[in-house]
Predict the 3D structure of the following.
Amino acid sequence: MAHEGDPLEHERASWKPSRGLAVAVSDPVQNPGLPPHRERITDKDPAAMKRAVRTVYTLFYLSVAASIWAVVAYMIFPIESGSLTAIRDNNLFIGLGIAFAMLAIGVGAIHWSKAIMSDKEFIEPRHATRGRDSTRETVIANFATANEESGFGRRVMIRNSLFAALVASVVPGIVLFRGLAPESSPENPHAGDPVYLLSHTMWKKGSRLALDPSGRPIKASEVTLGSAFQVIPEELAGVSHHDGYLEEKAKAIVLLMRLPQEDLIETEDRKDWSYDGIVAYSKVCTHVGCPVALYEQQTHHLLCPCHQSQFDVSEGAKVIFGPAARPLPQLPITVDDEGYLIAQSDFTEPVGPSFWERH
């Protein structure tokens, strides 16, 4: 209730609606049209046009040469020797070749569009269209016009050099795939067979499971519930890096975990592959070979951080999510007379990515 002399009540009584403010509305902005066309030097001087054309196809052929150089550098500076100088030179010169090949294509394409292709301005009206025969005819006509304006059909040297540069640019990448597996030789006939290489690791019957990187053998009593250890064959601890240590370790690396015995779901043929709830699985993801490293002890799930594949350790490391195509290979384990964990054998299937052809 308002009281006498209330200032708010006085304001309500004295308020009156004000007149609206007048807003000046100007005439709509007129379309200024296109600015006067400025001819390029290549439009006015035929000699300049010829120089521009030569520049473009020269850049494209330089791209071809750079791609070839990248392949040559791969052969001149082999990384198989393990020398840091060779590895540095290999990365440097192959990288320079590929980078210059890509750069030359880009610069050539930009110079082509700026100096040679049609430079006339035009307005393209937009309106709703539906697919019909006349639309198809218009598209064909547009392609013909684009071909005429760009000179793609007439500029044979530019077109052919561009095709050559594009084809050559992928050759270094193809050649680099050679390094995925070494070539076979009389001394090592299986070196070029990825199935054989991934089917055999340094694990063998009686190999003790050793902590990585110390190489100390681990006892079953040290593996507590919920724990996860990265282990390698004890034999790897005595292998020097020059004896293929990294290659062998990459194939043999294993994750060791202990689960409650009642949580394990094992098939009949694998019931003796674990020991008192302790299981061992390859750490190499079966998608593209990334290291599976994240273990969630409550759900018993393993996660590959590269592409989010998830494996259920309690049920044979089967895939429960992600792009991996098959479970992680299991290493059969047991204990020796001293209580140390040992391997019963090597893996019974190839480790690593499942895109390899398998027997």
